[in-house]
Sequence to fold (199 residues):
Amino acid sequence: MNDPYSVLGVSPNASDDEIKQAYRKLAKQYHPDAYKDNPLASLAEEKMKEINEAYDTIQKMRAGGYSGSSRANAGGQSYTGKNAEVYARVRSCINTRNIMGAQALLDGVSERDAEWYFLMGSVNYAKGWMDEAYTNFQTAVNMNPGNPEYQNALRRMSSRTGAYRTARTSSASGCDICGNLLCADCLCECLGGDLIPCC
Fold:
């Protein structure tokens, strides 16, 4: 899902009433009853689903203490300061699997603190970039060693990637594999055959 505020067409600083009004307007516009016997009925149904998810996400975020001011809360993490709103939105994007949106928001942050590295580690983990995720979590722990969330993420990464790192360092690299295939192909051709027979 996209950023829930963008889906409803409101600013993250909008009041609860403004969000409710935006939701009601969109819900009325895309309600399935308005699209009976219409070829666009399935599109309207998808849009309505997206609108409901966005509204629910915002309600959950705000129930946890997010007020749209300089203090933000997402996923149980309370933020204050310059990047509070951005970090809350990044967590929301990660929770809704909008990894590219989270990445874009993080790329816009110039002052990178421990939370930035933790969130970037979460983004890289979701993308399957284990080495980058591990490095980001390690940096977050180094910058703020007292944060249990950072420590847990690094500990989980260490246990999950231990076998991956061992296998990666002990096995052949991509270049070795390609080189071996090229050699095998040359040998086969010298012997009058192809490595991969044609069908």
About this structure: The CA atoms of residues 5 and 141 lie 31 Å apart.
